[in-house]
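Researcher: Please translate sequence to structure tokens.
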Amino acid sequence: MFILLMIAMGVLLGIFWLWMFIDVIIKQSEDKIVWLLVVFFLNALGAILYYFLARKKRLAAASGETPRMEPRQASYANASTSTNVGCGHWNEVGSAFCGARL
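Model: Translation complete:
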């Protein structure tokens, strides 16, 4: 029974690998050579990486979804002259009032 399960998993991974390999060749326009090498040389792991990293990103861009972004951290490059007052805008006086002009 265990052997049949392993054979079935191998066949499914092989089909998935072939699907991702063909997807890279036909549909990937950005970094095609890199993803082709990753999928080819890393086999199932490369196909899984491609599926979760490149393919989902490409499909989200094609459907018009905006990728989820993490909130930006405050930059302290100009800390001597500007202050982040918590609203995401910088003001020169450093007061608690944002004063952003939109």
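Researcher: Any highlights?
Model: The two ends are 67 Å apart (CA to CA).
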